[in-house]
Amino acid sequence: MKKMFSLIVVSCMLLSGCLQSNNDLELYGTEYKNPPDAPDFTLLNQHGESVTLSDYSDKVAKRKKAKCILKVQ
Hints:
Strand content: 15-25%
Low-confidence stretches: none
Mean pLDDT: 75
Strand order of the largest sheet: 1-2
Helix content: 10-25%
Oligomer: single chain
Order of helices and strands: HEEEE
Distance between the termini: 58 Å
Structural class: alpha+beta
Radius of gyration: 23 Å
Number of helices: 1
C-alpha cells in the first residue's frame, strides 16, 4: 500500500509539469541575434599535432558517444 501511494504521488508530481503550458515565458540572460565570429586559434591534440579552428571551417564535427553535432562556420 505504501509503495502504491508513493508511486501515485511521484506520478502526480512528474505529470503536473507536463500538463500546464505557459507560452508567456521570459528569457533572463543574453540572446545573441548575430553572434561574433570566434577568433582563430591553434591547440595540440592528444597526438601532439597542431589543430587550428580554421581547419574545420564549414565542416560538421560529430562526437560518437555524446550524440551532439557541432557546426563550425
